[in-house]
Specification:
The complex is a heterodimer of chains A (about 220) and B (about 475).
Chain A (H helix, E strand, L loop, with lengths): L3 E5 L3 H13 L3 E5 L5 H5 L4 E5 L7 H11 L5 E5 L7 H5 L4 E4 L4 H15 L7 E3 L2 E4 L4 E4 L5 E2 L3 H12 L4 E3 H9 L9 H13 L9 E4 L3 E4 L2
Parallel strand pairs in A: 1-2, 1-3, 3-4, 4-5
Antiparallel strand pairs in A: 6-7, 7-8, 8-9, 10-12, 11-12
Helix pairs in contact in A: 6-7, 6-8
Chain B lengths: L5 H10 L1 H34 L12 H13 L6 H14 L4 E5 L5 E5 L14 H11 L5 E6 L9 E6 L11 H40 L17 H56 L5 H31 L8 E4 H19 L2 E5 L8 E4 L1 H18 L5 E7 L6 E6 L11 H14 L2 E8 L2 E8 L3
Parallel strand pairs in B: 6-8
Antiparallel strand pairs in B: 1-2, 1-4, 3-4, 5-7, 8-9, 9-11, 10-11
Helix pairs in contact in B: 2-6, 7-8, 8-11, 9-10, 10-11
Classes of the chains: A alpha/beta (about 220), B alpha+beta (about 475).
């Protein structure tokens, strides 16, 4: 892969093992033990991995500075804080977060998801089942037939929203409010109708959808 | 502020409301004589001006003046000077035409009678003792007003002269209008005093209301804010005291906040220090996994990995519980659609359930309308997290998790059911998690009941008393 990661962690033991793990996966890693030089080192990086508890400048401040300097740089926060404490403060700028102690596999998985979401080169399409999605160009191609699939504005919005949160289940309220930008009213069928049309265009078999999964009782999910 | 001694007391008294009200009362009292004399002056002036020529006094002075005049006249006459007496009486009759006069000589014979037309008691021709007494009896305090005077310098008699005059001539002709005028003046004065007092108290009232409003007003931290101090009087001092209190409250709130943040910092540090070794352990376990271990070794590794996870959540729960029960985690209760929150929480947990082979049966749709409770979002999410985590950790063997709405209307409850064979192990890790659930739900005025059986555990959450 060869993506360049900025990793800021003050605990040397953890840092050593995470660096080993990341290098093994082919990432290039710049490790800093404190956040002082974070902004300078961040240029050219594809992702920042940031511990909340740092000596000197704390992780929240460093993260906010990074996001200001490099808005396109995804930030993954690693926090050792208790879950009821200050989590939201960290999430305002962070694109994802992980609590210590994390499983190495989970860290790798999250990094991959973030890199894919923020990938700058639009040339490489993202594969979702039989579909090829060119995010930069807002283009979706049916991999089976090679034909381009044309979506209406709302259909595209819905699909894009689910794709951006690939792997996560989104409830109908969340999707509706993100796409229509207004509060969801109980019993509104608009979203269901749109998803039905969307599936008719995207799915091989709209009766047994694979791209947009229905998670019964909860919502919908797209898995990349 | 203190210790300025009498000077300040004097200044205080000068500024006090009491002294100011006393000033109003005193000026009213002092002004009263001035205004009364002014009013009578103006009345005299105005009255003289308005009623010029129309005397208000009785025409011939009052009755006693008339009486002494008659006696005086009698004193200048002598018995026997009949000519002179009659001439004088005629002159007097001309002066007092309304009066009737006569005189009686020493022999008791009535001489000149100068009548006025309307007679009182008939005048006898000859005067006997009984006639005289009858006449006197009829005349005493009667109308007409009667004066009997013996002639002679020493009023030695026996001749006497009589004057009779209608009493109405002696009544004062003062007009009654002047009394009303006077009363009105006093009333106006009284009203002026009431108005000034009213204005005085109205201002006091307004300032007190302002103070009351300031006390009920809440600033940023839910504390009253200091207000502008207006004057040096009692209310001004009250405002000053109020400001001092507000500042004091603000300070103690500040101290509390500092303690709170210190405590939070401590717990955050503790959390970090406890988790760092666990993270390192996870790393080493990960490296071990790639070695060629025996099946037993792999199993031991899996157990170890699981225990690291348990340990982490135990630390989290323990620290959370400490924060919460010491009141350092204030709940913000808002009316929230609970079903939506449950669905979102389930969405986050679903991938893990899939991984653990737990079939999730979620049905929150069948009952109409959103279910709205007053809850703290984060707190309620925490409750769900702890309950779901218990299912994953202790009831994954049942392979089932059901989330449903039961009941109807406002009494609806949320039920979370599993089919774990062993049920929840009491006091083993689950304890602190459930303590948090219990604490948070109690704070949000919700009840929860847990039913354990051979076939699984069901937790029901519902509004208190529902």
């Amino acid at each position: 892969m060869g993506a360049k990661l900025l990793y800021i962690e003050d605990d040397k033991e953890i840092a050593d093992f995470v660096r080993g793990l990341l290098k093994e996966r082919g990432y290039e890693v710049i490790w800093l033990a404190s956040g002082e030089r974070a902004v300078e080192e961040a240029s050219g990086c594809h992702l920042a991995l940031l511990d909340v508890m740092l000596p000197g400048l704390d992780g929240f401040t460093v993260g906010q500075r990074l996001k200001k300097a490099e808005p396109a740089l995804p930030i993954l926060m690693i926090t050792a804080r208790t879950s009821i404490d200050d989590k939201l403060q960290g999430l305002q700028f962070a694109d994802d977060y992980l609590t210590k102690p994390f499983h190495p596999e989970e860290l790798l998985a999250r990094i991959e998801v973030l890199l894919r979401r923020f990938r700058t080169s639009g040339a490489e399409p993202m594969a979702v089942k039989h579909l090829l999605v060119y995010e930069q160009e807002n283009r979706i191609v049916n991999g089976d037939s090679g034909e381009e699939i044309l979506l209406t504005g709302k259909q595209f919005h819905i699909f894009h929203y689910l794709l951006r949160h690939a792997g996560q289940i989104k409830t109908k309220e969340q999707i509706y409010e993100a796409v229509w930008n207004e509060p969801y009213l109980e019993g509104d069928k608009t979203l269901m109708v749109h998803i039905r049309y969307l599936r008719e265009k995207l799915e091989r078999d709209p009766a047994a959808p694979e791209v947009i999964e229905t998670v019964r009782g909860i919502g919908y999910r797209v898995r990349a | 502020m203190k210790g300025n001694g009498p000077k300040e007391t004097a200044a205080k008294f000068r500024h006090s409301l009491l002294s100011r009200y006393l000033l109003i009362v005193m000026s009213a009292i002092l002004l009263l004589p001035i205004i009364i004399s002014l009013s009578s002056l103006s009345y005299t002036f105005l009255g003289g001006f308005l009623k010029s020529g129309e005397s208000s006094e009785p025409k011939y002075g009052n009755a006693s003046q008339m009486e002494s005049l008659w006696h005086e006249e009698a004193g200048q006459l002598r018995g026997g000077e009949n000519e002179r007496i009659e001439r004088r009486l005629r002159e007097l009759k001309e002066r007092y035409p309304e009066a009737s006069m006569f005189w009686v000589d020493g022999a008791g014979e009535t001489r000149l009678v100068l009548a006025s037309g309307e007679e009182g008691y008939p005048v006898p021709e000859r005067w006997t003792a009984s006639e005289a007494i009858r006449f006197m009896k009829a005349s005493v305090n009667g109308d007409p007003f009667t004066v009997v005077a013996f002639l002679g310098e020493e009023h030695e008699g026996p001749d006497f002269m009589v004057l009779q005059m209608p009493r109405e001539l002696f009544l004062s002709t003062e007009p009654t209008g002047s009394v009303i005028y006077y009363g009105l003046f006093v009333m106006a004065l009284f009203f002026l005093f009431v108005m000034v007092s009213l204005l005085f108290f109205r201002r006091i009232r307004r300032r007190l209301l302002r103070l009351q409003w300031a006390m009920t007003l809440r600033g940023d931290g839910g504390l009253p804010r200091p207000i502008e101090q207006s004057k040096q009087d009692e209310i001004g001092q009250l405002e000053g005291a109020f400001n001092a209190m507000a500042t004091h409250l603000e300070e103690s709130r500040e101290r509390e906040r500092e303690e709170e943040s210190l405590r939070k910092q401590l717990i955050a540090n503790l959390s970090h220090d406890l988790r760092t070794p666990l993270t390192v352990m996870n790393g080493h376990l990960h490296s071990l996994k790639r070695d060629n271990l025996s099946a037993d070794g792999q199993e031991a590794l899996k157990q170890l990995s699981g225990k690291v996870g348990d340990m982490a959540s135990l630390i989290d729960n323990l620290l959370s519980y400490t924060l919460m029960t010491s009141g350092k985690y204030p709940l913000r209760l808002e009316t929230t659609d609970v079903l939506r929150l449950v669905r979102e929480s389930a969405a986050a947990w679903y991938p893990l359930w899939e991984k653990e082979g737990i079939e999730a049966d979620i049905d929150l749709e069948k009952t109409g309308g959103p279910l709205e409770w007053r809850i703290d979002r984060e707190g309620f999410k925490r409750v769900l997290d702890n309950l779901f985590q218990n299912v994953v950790r202790h009831a994954a063997d049942g392979g089932y998790l059901g989330i449903t709405v039961e009941g109807e209307g406002n009494g609806r409850s949320i039920a979370i059911a599993d089919r774990g064979q062993g049920g929840l192990p009491s006091g083993k890790g689950a304890g602190i998690g459930l303590a948090i659930v219990g604490y948070l739900l109690k704070e949000m005025e919700l009840d929860y009941r847990m039913e354990r059986s051979e076939t699984g555990t069901t937790v029901r959450i519902q509004p208190r008393g529902g």
